[in-house]
Design brief:
Length: 322
């Protein structure tokens, strides 16, 4: 049976899914269940009218799309945060494709919604068909974080608002859509293109991380890849060889001292910190930690995972699990 925990307006769940579509169905059922959030703070299913319509949708022989959803989060209770999810079959692989919107128009298609990501590709979680999926979800009314274990690798996504350094009137809609790859990347790829949102890779606007800027444009995040990073969105500390950062903190660190940093988003042209992922942390000095371990910090649990297939010290992160 799924195990659910809730504290205030935060909730989390772990479960097993037998397909990409089953995973999405269980995630959305959790997000829209009022029992998992404070009154009036659950996510809302905007399209289709019922989750059963998504579950029963057939895969289109041309596009491969086997169902799509539009959700709305309420954030602080007055926000309207619109995000989209599609399930797309690519033969022996099924992608969970994500999008972000600035509003909702019932007369427009999923790809046409106001303020949608207009890049040639969208962030995805690529999954091999016929594989057991161990799944973790943590959510609040402003964002949800997904992790999927497929054999020995861990795919992940961050969908919703980030915490900004500016006041709300300056940056009222800090929407981030991040996953572990982008359209066209195979689940088995070992290139920089297959690197999760907290340490994104790719080429140009084709990356695993996108952020809606103050002016309403979308920017791709990239720490590694073939394109120059200057002018792009980056994340810290993963792009600074953070194992080296530890030496400025304490030269006497031992294996028992685990360092936890918030993951920051910053822009390289007109340099400045934009904000930080809500509930996502870089884990340093983690030689004695493995994926799925639980850290306790100030009495609260954090679940540890690694970036897809990578086991380097710079490639581990933790999510709030309370």
């Amino acid at each position: 049976m799924p195990k659910i925990k809730e504290v205030d307006e935060m909730a989390c769940i772990d479960f097993v899914a037998n397909s990409a579509k089953d995973f999405v169905k269980q995630v959305v059922a959790f997000l829209i269940d009022p029992a998992n959030f404070a009154p009036g703070m659950a996510w809302q299913l905007i399209r289709p009218a019922t989750l059963a319509e998504f579950a029963n949708a057939a895969y289109d022989q041309g596009t491969g799309i086997g169902g799509e959803l539009i959700l709305k989060g309420v954030g602080d209770g007055e926000d309207e945060i619109y995000v989209g999810i599609q399930v797309v079959n690519k033969g022996e692989q099924t992608d969970i494709r994500f999008n972000g919107f600035a509003g909702y128009d019932p007369g427009l298609e999923w790809f046409e919604q106001p303020g949608c990501i207009y890049h040639a590709t969208l962030p995805i979680i690529p999954l091999a068909d016929g594989t057991r999926l161990n799944c973790w979800v943590t959510a609040n009314p402003a964002r949800f974080i997904l992790v999927v274990q497929m054999s020995t690798q861990y795919e992940s996504a961050y969908i919703g608002f980030v915490k900004t350094v500016s006041v709300e009137r300056q940056y009222p809609y800090p929407l981030v859509i991040g996953a572990s790859a982008y359209d066209g990347v195979a689940w088995s790829a070992t290139s920089d293109a297959h690197s999760a949102f907290m340490n994104p890779g790719g080429d140009g606007d084709n990356t695993s991380l996108r952020m809606r800027r103050m002016d309403g444009t979308w920017r791709a995040g990239q720490n590694k890849g073939s394109s120059p990073i200057k002018g792009k969105l980056c994340t810290w500390p993963q792009n600074t060889k953070p194992t080296n950062v530890l030496t400025v903190l304490d030269n006497s660190l031992t294996i028992e001292n685990v360092i936890e940093f918030p993951v920051l988003l910053y822009e390289c042209d007109n340099p400045g910190i934009v904000g930080q992922f809500d509930g996502v942390y870089f884990i340093g000095n983690r030689e004695d930690l493995s994926a799925k371990d639980t850290l306790i910090h100030e009495g609260k649990p954090y679940k540890v995972f690694n970036n897809i297939f990578r086991r380097d010290n710079d490639e581990y992160f933790a999510i709030e699990w309370f």
